């Protein structure tokens, strides 16, 4: 049975599991960093790259969030891989908030149909904890399938939800946005 079938065909889950298995199989490579990783001095520090190291999962998340804001997209946490031995986090997938597609609503009556926000974008970063305790980027996809808005990325709401007039601002003071 293939990993894609085990994961139900979800591309991010399948990619995450495949990258996770690849690191386990390639234990002969030093600390799980794939061959051919660019030298530290030759890479732009503002751009993520495969083999990039972070002191913690939170540092990796903060870096990718800052990168996403600068480039013009919003990230969300997709997958978490835990150790079978002690349950600690050993892998994390951070994806574009437009990754995948929304699941169909199972409720009988939908009062207010929400706008479609997911368009199948595959931009993502996979980080994995190595034996030194550091977190290493094991997979990176930079290409987006939608337009980006550099400098306008938001961490907590979609950009189109900003109020543009005093009337809208007054309205949301009584009915706040839920992000």
TrEMBL record:
Spans traversing the lipid bilayer: none
Any coiled-coil regions, as ranges: none
Chain spans, region Disordered: 1-42
Domain FAR1, residue spans: 63-149
Protein name: FAR1 domain-containing protein
Organism, scientific name: Rubroshorea leprosula
